[in-house]
Amino acid sequence: MTPSKYQKDIYEIFTTSDSNINISAVAGSGKTTVLLELLKFVPDDKQALFVAFNNSIVDELKERIGAKSNVEISTIHSYGWRSVLCRYGSKVKMNPNKVFGKIEGILKQYDEISVKKHGYYFYIIPKIIDLMRCNLTPVDKQEILDMSMHYDLDISEIEAEIAMKVFEKMNRDKSQFDFMDMIYQPVVDAHIRLRKYDYVFCDESQDFSVCQQKIIQMSLNRKGRLITVGDEHQSIYGF
Prior knowledge:
By secondary structure, the chain is α/β, with parallel strands linked by helices. The protein contains ten helices and seven strands. The strands form two sheets. It has a five-stranded parallel β-sheet with strand order 1-7-6-2-3. Strand 2 (48-52), helix 3 and strand 3 (71-75) form a beta-alpha-beta unit. The longest helix has 18 residues, at 118-135. The relative contact order is 0.18.
């Protein structure tokens, strides 16, 4: 397929400059195709990471790109999880229900909260903690209240307080990790070392949370280049 004028301009900028590139384009305009084409211009002695949205897209892209040993295609969570495993070993557990065990332990400290109300806390606290991690929100009661208001979560100070305690207890536990930990822990845990790349390509960048943006920044080496494509009108999360 003959590239359009705009695609040619992108390829020229990529090959003639050292700048980061952000491509904004509408759905169906060939954004992913452009990224795959740019991979062909990556020098053989440089390492590149292509961040895809989910595992099915990863498999599809691997087929499309073929054998290019200096290019790694991965989801952002898989990339982060490999770093966690390198630091804490393959014996750590992936536990999607990690937060619930911590909530149960913290609620035992609150005699004034009846058992009948525990179901509500098992519902609201995970939402608060996921948003804290997505936004890299400080462990501060007012910060949590302000963040929750931004996302239309109507919570009280006691709920923010419990969320803080659960959050801190989760972060101290390095024996098990949940889905959000895959990207959150590599960002906040100084003991975890991320592999660095000369080029990082990101698809659907409009849906990256603050935490995802941070781990992508950390994946670049000192002179690395970031190339992103996205469409702000397609954002489904609103970070």
